[in-house]
Design brief:
The chain is mainly beta. It has no helices and eleven strands.
């Protein structure tokens, strides 16, 4: 059974940066995507950035967020720059799904909170 553990969330002022990490164990399906999702209070969970042999970003984060993966460390990263208050949400790492569609993902981490103040 795959396990995903996020870290790196926190509070930052608008314009600041954060780097999220997700340590992945027990997951070996290279035919499916891994990535980052977020859910703000009162809103549906949405895809932020996913990676397989290619990378996909939500339009709202293009040019500001960068997803990467270190296969040697089994760790997924999300570098978030130029943060905006509307980026505030619980961020989740997920694996085993398709594109930016959260309902297709099988494995989820527990989430890490990101709060951006204006």
């Amino acid at each position: 059974e795959a396990q995903l553990v996020e870290s790196g969330g926190g509070s930052v002022q608008a314009g600041g940066s954060l780097r999220l990490s997700c340590e992945v164990s027990g997951y070996t399906d290279s035919n499916r995507y891994m990535g980052w999702f977020r859910q703000a209070a009162g809103k549906a969970r949405e895809g932020v950035a996913v990676i397989k042999d290619g990378i996909m970003y939500a339009d709202s984060v293009k040019g500001r967020f960068t997803i990467s993966k270190d296969n040697a460390k089994n760790t997924l990263y999300l570098q978030m720059n130029s943060l905006k208050p509307e980026d505030s949400a619980m961020y989740y790492c997920a694996a085993g799904g398709l594109w930016l569609l959260p309902n297709t993902y099988k494995y989820w981490g527990q989430g890490t909170q990101v709060t951006v103040s204006s």
